[in-house]
Design a protein that fits this description.
Elements (H helix, E strand, L loop, with lengths): L1 H14 L4 H13 L3 H14 L4 H13 L3 H14 L4 H13 L3 H14 L4 H13 L3 H14 L4 H13 L3 H14 L4 H13 L6
Helix pairs in contact: 1-2, 2-3, 2-4, 3-4, 4-5, 4-6, 5-6, 6-7, 6-8, 7-8, 8-9, 8-10, 9-10, 10-11, 11-12
Amino acid sequence: IEGCVLKSSCQALAIKPDFAEAHSNLGNALAALDRENEAIPHYHTALALRPRYPEAYKNLGDALAAVGRHHDARSHYEAALALKPDYADALNNLGNSLTALRQPEAAITQYLRALDIAPNFAEAQSNLGVALAALARHDEALACFEKAITLKCDYAEAYYNKANSLAALGRPHEAIERYQQAVALDANYAAAHYNLGTALAALNRHEE
């Protein structure tokens, strides 16, 4: 699908080089192929052509975050929200960049805003839990992870995050069960495999 979008966006730009939406769509297709460094200039071009384009600001923020440029991502999420204050995805992703910048209190504010707008936003629930866990508020974090799993039962990352908080609370047997659920849902989840091994080792289950 991304390849088709890539081709059609390129064709559109060959006909109309100043087509902001085509530049943004091309950026999206490149980002979906993990080619964020190529996507970023297209988002910038889209915004130069259409400055009041909240989706392009958000997607540019996503691409910048994907390459570790969280300070820059933050400013673009804020620009998106200045144009569209009820943009739940931008609020959630702003929270993620704030978490990456080790500002969990500020991240919590953004996740709560996102959840006020979209109460069934499973990713925001799980991310709120991660920010709470960063402040060692693990009991509150567990409640968030449980809500996220209720909303999205196949959410491997929420199981993984819940396991981390259970481990931090000294509940390794429960943590192991959640890590196992995470890897059952995503067999390539390297961090979950690693932390599962760590939890098993803590219980002297070294063969496992």
